[in-house]
Design a protein that fits this description.
CATH architecture: 3-Layer(aba) Sandwich
Shape: globular
CATH topology: Rossmann fold
Helix content: 10-25%
Mean pLDDT: 91
CATH class: Alpha Beta
Largest sheet: 7 strands, mixed
Low-confidence stretches: 1-7, 207-215
Number of domains: 1
Oligomer: single chain
Radius of gyration: 16 Å
Order of helices and strands: EEHEHEHEEHEHEE
Strand content: 25-35%
Length: 215
């Protein structure tokens, strides 16, 4: 990337340099289009692999959210799993959003909406949230992102976030436990390849137990 050009830039300044990669999503081998100036353009990154391998099947329908969608791996996986759901692929990077649209069209998926935050209606509650969040935007921006979207989980619904241990998964878990309202339960759902999958559940009550996964 060019100096000062990040995957979380709204308009990457580097040349687009489209490329194709082969990935397996929702049990299906597909070809995806990626480009420079987005997150992990040359392969399905390890964190997303861990998230997809350690998340339950998506609900059959409803509104889903992919925070920091990049070229769309998580959104595409959800859309193929749940063709009757509506997937909101959220990013600030316009190049990434264009790639999501391109990949959805090539796969015949009409249930993905590639959007910026202001394009998501305020009255939507999400049946699931899946994310490999943009940790490198820094803690203040990351915390703002979590505080904006996690409280919009529907009742009795779950979010799954993958974070590398050495990039602060444990501190993020503690912060969510301390910051989110009591009706949200936070625990470590899975450990794999140096990553943590964190689960956030919007409970129907505030008295149920919170599972904890031991190291």
């Amino acid at each position: 990337m060019f100096m000062g050009d990040h995957y979380f830039s709204a308009q990457p300044s580097s040349p687009e340099e489209l490329r194709t990669i082969g990935v397996n999503l929702a049990g299906r081998d597909i070809t995806a289009t990626t480009a420079s100036g987005v997150f992990s353009p040359d392969r399905l990154d390890k964190g997303t692999e861990v998230l997809l391998a350690n998340s339950p099947d998506a609900p059959p329908g409803g509104d889903f959210l992919d925070i920091g969608c990049g070229w769309g791996a998580i959104s595409l996986d959800l859309a193929m799993q749940s063709p009757h759901a509506r997937i909101w692929a959220l990013d600030v990077n316009e190049r990434a959003l264009d790639l999501v649209r391109r990949n959805a069209e090539s796969l015949g998926l009409d249930n993905i909406r590639a959007v910026t935050a202001d394009q998501i209606p305020a009255d939507i509650a999400f049946r699931t949230i899946r994310s490999n969040p943009p940790i490198r935007i820094g803690k203040p921006a990351l915390h703002e992102l979590m505080q904006t979207w996690l409280p919009r989980l529907d009742l009795s619904s779950d979010a799954y976030l993958v974070v590398q241990k050495n990039l602060g998964s444990d501190s993020l878990q503690r912060w969510m436990e301390q910051t989110l309202p009591d009706r949200f339960a936070v625990h470590r759902h899975a450990i794999s390849k140096g990553f943590r999958v964190l689960k956030v559940r919007h409970r129907s009550d505030t008295t149920g137990p919170i599972d904890t996964l031991a190291e």
